[in-house]
Specification:
The chain has four helices and seven strands; from the N terminus they run ββααααβββββ. By secondary structure, the chain is an alpha+beta fold. The two termini are 18 Å apart. Helix 1 packs antiparallel against helix 2. The protein is globular, with a radius of gyration of 15 Å.
Length: 183
């Protein structure tokens, strides 16, 4: 399990257990550490909901409605350069309280840009269709990328007001992401 933490000018990679990552992040950013803990609590809730077919369907229906906003955001991103993506998301954050990650199919924020403002269990599903395709990522707040669908496998945390990772090969996470939790 690893974490990438970043500010506008620096980033670092840290590997450890969830508890170690929370401790590490809490030294510089207690609010983000609390968000990581809330992600872990949400994971437990999602696991419980997945065992109940009715709750699983309700969860997906609700997330599908929210995914329409991501579709609109993706259309806006297509009209702009990767450098303008940060400004657009910043504008959205002035109005909405959302976690956000943009996964790019190419290195250095090139190729198809796929925005996530929600938790999504399987990148093969509509409207994202981007399983195992991310090579770079920009993140706002705390986002957890998972190696496998259903929030399983290795994790890659993006933590910070704004964090960017132009090459996921450096973290051993290139073309592996299959689900996400945005906090």
């Amino acid at each position: 399990m690893g974490i990438r933490t970043a500010g506008a000018l620096e980033s670092e990679f840290y590997e450890g257990t969830v508890e170690e990552i929370v401790e590490y992040v809490s030294q510089t950013d207690p609010a983000s550490a609390a968000k990581i803990q809330s992600v872990e609590a949400r994971l437990a809730s999602l696991a419980q909901a997945a065992s109940d077919p009715d709750k699983a369907v309700e969860f997906y229906q609700f997330q599908s409605i929210r995914a329409k906003a991501d579709e609109l955001l993706a259309r806006e991103l297509e009209k702009r350069s990767p450098d303008e993506h940060q400004q657009l998301i910043g504008e959205w954050h002035q109005t909405y309280s959302i976690g956000t990650a943009i996964l790019y199919h190419g290195y250095n924020f090139t190729g198809r840009a796929v925005p996530f403002t929600l938790t999504w269990p399987n990148f093969n599903w509509w409207p994202y269709d981007c399983n195992d395709a991310a090579s770079s990522v920009k993140g706002w707040g705390v986002n957890v990328l998972f190696e496998h669908a259903g929030y399983r496998g290795r994790r890659f945390y993006t933590v910070g007001v704004y964090a960017e990772y132009p090459d996921l090969r450096l973290a051993g996470f290139d073309n592996l992401t299959s689900s996400i939790i945005a906090a």
